[in-house]
Structures are given as structure tokens and as C-alpha cells.
Amino acid sequence: MDAELAVALEDVGFEYGRGLDAVVDRATFDVRYGVATCLYGPSGSGKSTLLALIGRLVQPTRGRVGWHPRHAGESAPRFAWVTQAANLVPSLTVVENVALGPLARSGSVAGSYARAESAIAAVGLLGLERRPVTAVSGGQMQRVAIARALASDADVLLADEPTANLDASAAAVVLEAIGLAVEAGAAVVVASHDAAVLELASSRIEVRGGSCRVVG
Ligand SMILES: Nc1ncnc2c1ncn2[C@@H]1O[C@H](COP(=O)(O)OP(=O)(O)OP(=O)(O)O)[C@@H](O)[C@H]1O
């Protein structure tokens, strides 16, 4: 049986301004819960733009993007982002950054910190919880951003080149953490050049000049 639908793109086109060339052209594919989808293709082919369309940051100029909530009673899925610039709050510690999402949702400080600590463990950063986030390396910041996404318990996790700044062992930890989110039932979409990410994904979309081909 197919996994449940999270986001469906139907014949989607997008350009960044009137009169500019389309950067996404007739994209049609599904993103499903409990599945890792990898968008891969050369630099500038439109992968980040597709993530922005999936995550509702921009609206298509043609075609349709449909969002399907994971839980009854919700109007749309909840998204978490892992972007190339980690976008952490510089004045907070590692654990405070990761706890922000659960804290905003539940209001429970103890529960949110427990959740944050287990996400920090999942990305291999135990021991760094109380460090100011500005006092960790760039690759560690990337892992903090992934922990933050895991702790937020989002329905759809969107990651743009999450292993780009990491060495092989840190990248392996990140891939394991992404695998945990998939196991927990999230729809995960990763834009990446990394062959290991492609291997992890069970749905692969090749992006070339804004056109998408579902590879399997
Ligand atoms: N804000 C913007 N305004 C105008 N054009 C843009 C904007 N953002 C991206 N583009 C253009 O859209 C095209 C697709 O860019 P996008 O960032 O989606 O590609 P990508 O495949 O993610 O690239 P990379 O792998 O280098 O991150 C590129 O030609 C890029 O120059």
C-alpha cells in the first residue's frame, strides 16, 4: 500500500518575477509520510525552489501544490526546515535553540528540554547542550539545526544540503537522524548532491533545468 500523501505537486511552474525564465517547469510528483524523498541535480537546477514550493514559502505561478495534513482536525502539515544557513538564535545555548519548537507548542519546560536533549543525542552532540550556539563549529551548528527540526516533531521536514558542510562521520550521524524522522512517520524531503543521501531515499526526483523526473 502507498504511504499517505503529504504534499502533491501537479504540473507546477514557477518564476521569480514577471518576464523571468521559469525555474520550475511542469513539476509533478508526490511527497509521502514515512518516506525520504531526495531532490538531486546540478547546482542551479531548481532544488531549493522546489523545497520552497513544497514548504509554502512561495506559491506556484502555474499548476497546483496540495498539502495534506497528517492528523485529523489540522488544516495543513507542520513544516520544519534545515537550511544551508542554519538560522539559529545566536544569543541562546544549543539546548535552548532546540527546545524552542516544543516549548512553543506545549509550554512544558521540562518536557521540551527532555525532548531537546534526546534530539541532541540523536545528532551526536551530547555534552554540548549548555554551550552558546555561537561557540560550536559550522558543522555542529548544522547538526543543531537538524536536532531542532527533529525536536519540533514536524510532519514534513525539508532539508537543503544537510550534509554539505560535514565530514563523513558527522554526515553519517545526520543521515541516521533523518532516518529517525522518517521512522517516526514524517515526510522528509532532502535536496542534495550527496550520494549517501540518494541511497537513503526511497523516492528520488531528478531535477534538471527546473524539470523533474521521478526516478524511483
Ligand atoms: N530569489 C531569486 N530571484 C531570482 N532568481 C533566483 C532566486 N533564487 C534562485 N534563483 C534562480 O533560480 C534557479 C534555481 O535556483 P535554486 O536555488 O532553486 O537551485 P538549486 O538547484 O537549489 O541550486 P544549488 O544546488 O546551487 O543550491 C537558479 O538559476 C537561480 O539563479
Protein topology:
Elements: E1 5-14, E2 24-32, E3 36-40, H1 47-54, E4 62-67, E5 79-82, H2 94-106, H3 109-122, H4 138-151, E6 156-160, H5 168-183, E7 187-191, H6 195-200, E8 203-208, E9 211-214
Parallel strand pairs: 3-7, 3-8, 5-6, 6-7
Antiparallel strand pairs: 1-2, 1-4, 8-9
Helix pairs in contact: 2-3, 2-4, 3-4, 4-5
The structure holds adenosine-5'-triphosphate (ATP).
Adenosine-5'-triphosphate binds at residues 16, 23, 43-49, 191.
Characterization of this structure:
The chain has 216 residues and is an alpha/beta fold. The protein has a domain at 1-77 and 187-215: P-loop containing nucleotide triphosphate hydrolases (Rossmann fold, 3-Layer(aba) Sandwich). 33% of the residues lie in helices and 25% in strands. It has helices at residues 47-54, 94-106, 109-122, 138-151, 168-183, 195-200; strands at residues 5-14, 24-32, 36-40, 62-67, 79-82, 156-160, 187-191, 203-208, 211-214. The chain has a six-stranded mixed β-sheet with strand order 5-6-7-3-8-9, sandwiched between helices. The radius of gyration is 17 Å and the shape is globular. The two termini are 16 Å apart. It binds adenosine-5'-triphosphate (ATP). Adenosine-5'-triphosphate binds next to helix 1. The site of adenosine-5'-triphosphate has 10 residues, from helix 1. GO terms for molecular function: ATP binding; ATP hydrolysis activity; transmembrane transporter activity. Keywords: ATP-binding, Lipoprotein, Nucleotide-binding.
CATH topology of the domain at 1-77 and 187-215: Rossmann fold
Instruction: Find the count of extended strands (DSSP E, 2+ residues).
Output: 9
The count of helical stretches stands at 6
Main sheet strand line-up = 5-6-7-3-8-9
| Average of pLDDT | 91
- Give the cofactors and ligands: adenosine-5'-triphosphate
The amount of helix comes to 25-40%
Largest sheet geometry? 6 strands, mixed
Given as residue ranges, the uncertain stretches (5+ residues, pLDDT < 50) are none
Order of helices and strands: EEEHEEHHHEHEHEE
